[in-house]
Design goal:
alpha/beta, Rossmann fold, eight-stranded mixed beta sheet, two-stranded antiparallel ribbon, about 20% strand, globular
Length: about 300
């Protein structure tokens, strides 16, 4: 029964008792925002674009959690390098992986619990040198993983040696005469390998980066995001931002390949497309195996599968 209050009052005819409902006051309730950052000291160089990447990731995760995603269902693996230090600055469960071995750990997480939203963080050396074989096969399997690669075209943590995406002629302590190979095109490689979501971002545009991250996480399948950014110490590229323009392609593979071909990671004058280069829904790894499909459909773990 609802609570009622007996109120005694006088009227023209004398004292009467009357049942009245209480007046309820509206109370403002403040819902605390999820804490997606940590108090760990940030050790990136002052002005590093990774600060902007971190801000975009914090914004994206906060927004997704407000939309109903559970913070405890996010899990991450980070590699070795400057950018993977983001592991220390995001309040998400996960592990540091070995150099180049981020994606095998991410795949292991999905096999262990296909209901997790798994995130991988690498630099270009981590992803495209030691980790190249894993990159190809993770895209081919189309596991439901979001893989973020910060590409500054150098091994910045170890004093700027060249990576597979360094421009031809790039000079470092290891190659004082300059890199003599043409750079790899990771976007074309991801498309050829079968990645179902391929995007490139400029970290200096935080709102756009946040938007791409959220779309990548919501995408069902292997989502690859490459961040084209400078290393302020070993590979500055002044004026490159002016060459960047936004695109938003769907599942047109021919157009996606044309977009990928438009910048070869070597040219200093070619336009650089950023945004979603390719996106298509297709079967994911977790749907191909009945055991994983059962866990995913019923939103349970192996422990509760019997």
């Amino acid at each position: 029964m609802k609570t009622q209050i007996r109120k005694k009052y006088d009227d023209e005819n004398g004292e009467e008792n009357q049942m009245v409902k209480p007046k309820l006051k509206s109370v403002a309730v403040t819902v605390p925002l999820p804490v997606v950052g940590t108090t760990q000291e940030i050790t990136w160089c002052p002005g590093c674009p990774n600060f902007l990447v971190l801000a975009a990731w914090k914004n994206a995760l906060t927004n997704l959690i407000k939309q109903g995603y559970l913070q405890e269902n996010f899990a991450m693996c980070a590699g070795i390098g400057c950018h993977p230090k983001i592991y220390d600055y995001l309040n998400i469960s996960g592990v540091y992986g070995l150099h180049g071995r981020v994606l095998p750990v991410c795949l292991g997480m999905k096999l262990g619990n296909p209901n997790l939203k798994v995130l991988g963080f690498s630099g270009d050396g981590d992803a495209y040198a030691e980790g190249m074989e894993h990159f190809i096969h993770a895209a081919r399997y189309n596991a439901d993983i979001t893989y973020f690669v910060a590409n500054n075209q150098s091994f910045a943590l170890t004093t700027g040696q060249s990576t597979p995406t360094s421009a031809k002629g790039f000079k470092s302590k290891a190659e004082p005469d300059g890199e003599y190979n043409m750079p790899l095109n990771p976007i074309k490689l991801a498309l050829a390998a079968g990645a179902s979501f391929v995007a490139r971002i400029n970290p200096k545009d935080i709102p756009h980066t946040q938007e791409i991250i959220e779309k990548a996480i919501k995408h069902k399948g292997f989502a690859f995001i490459e961040s084209i950014q400078d290393c302020l110490i070993f590979d500055q590229n002044p004026g490159r931002d002016k060459l960047m323009y936004k695109i938003d392609n769907g599942k047109d593979m021919k157009k996606a390949m044309e977009i990928a071909d438009s910048w070869d990671y070597n040219s200093k004058t070619a336009k650089i497309p950023i945004g979603i280069i390719y996106q298509e829904e297709k079967p994911i790894l977790e749907e191909k195996w009945p055991q994983l499909r059962k866990l995913r459909d019923n939103k349970i773990s192996w422990k509760n599968s019997k």
